[in-house]
Design a protein that fits this description.
By secondary structure, this protein is α+β, with helices and mostly antiparallel strands. It has two domains: 36 residues, no CATH class; 75 residues, no CATH class. 31% of the residues lie in helices and 13% in strands. The protein contains four helices and four strands; from the N terminus they run E-E-E-E-H-H-H-H. The strands form two sheets. The protein has a two-stranded antiparallel ribbon with strand order 1-2. Strands 3-4 form a two-stranded antiparallel sheet. The longest helix is centred in the C-terminal third of the chain and has 14 residues. The radius of gyration is 17 Å and the shape is globular.
Length: 124
């Protein structure tokens, strides 16, 4: 089962997610509600092959053991924020990139550092 956080307005109706800000204002915390969604059918696609796994953690373990790719290490190496992480995943999905393409990168411009990779890509 997955828990989703959904932004609600003062009247309790579900609204669009608000703009992100660094204001540090925690007054809006009470406007978040948890929504549960059944994910019994959830399957997560590997980033490098056609295999479907039952969870994100299973997929990360598979990527590590079968493809020698540690996503967490890449995120740390390049100091990726949430958007950088999303771009990386979409880059791998859209280019069918190999782990060598990503793990072998040194400092400098990253191939996924484009706004184009903020758009979701289909797995596989």
């Amino acid at each position: 089962m997955t828990t989703w956080l959904v932004w609600t307005g003062d009247d309790g109706a579900v609204d669009d997610v608000p703009e992100l800000s660094d204001s540090g204002d925690d007054d809006d915390d009470d406007q978040w509600q948890c929504m549960e969604d059944s994910t019994e059918d959830l399957q997560v696609a590997c980033l490098f092959c056609d295999r479907l796994l039952n969870s994100v953690s299973d997929t990360l373990q598979h990527c590590s053991s079968e493809h020698q790719f540690n996503l967490v290490d890449v995120i740390r190496k390049h100091n990726l924020d949430d958007y950088g992480y999303i771009k990386l995943i979409n880059y791998l999905r859209s280019t069918n990139g190999s782990r060598v393409d990503v793990t072998g990168l040194s400092e400098g411009p990253l191939p996924w550092d484009s706004e184009d990779f903020l758009r979701p890509r289909a797995a596989g």
